[in-house]
């Protein structure tokens, strides 16, 4: 059915809101904070039904890949490289994952990948435009 492959594509960082407040709140080390600021991250998503492969390509060749199935516990890795287990849920077309110290949602809105992370009332929003 149409719509099941909504996330598949390659997206390039376009802009974000509240970055500094959020990374302070989650305690990201300062070297990682600088690395992530206005970082042209390219996010590559391969969706096959409920199975996802979510890869973030950072400038300089560092990549992080999380592979998960909606509704099943999976081994994941955070922005800061911390490993943990999470069950990703799908609600109203949004992917929702509870990371160790924040909640992360991702959705495709107007052809863009919109990711929102929230921790104790601080909301970080990252928008990426589709490039492939």
TrEMBL record:
Transmembrane segments: none annotated. Its main location: cytoplasm. It is found in: Cytoplasm. One of its GO terms (molecular function) is lipid binding. It comes from the Eukaryota. InterPro entries: Calycin, Fatty_acid-bd, ILBP. GO terms for cellular component: cytoplasm. Gene3D superfamilies: 2.40.128.20. Keywords: Cytoplasm, Lipid-binding, Transport. Residues 9-26 form the Cytosolic fatty-acid binding proteins domain. Belongs to the calycin superfamily. Fatty-acid binding protein (FABP) family. PANTHER family: FATTY ACID BINDING PROTEIN. This is FABP6 protein. It comes from Aegithalos caudatus. The gene is Fabp6.
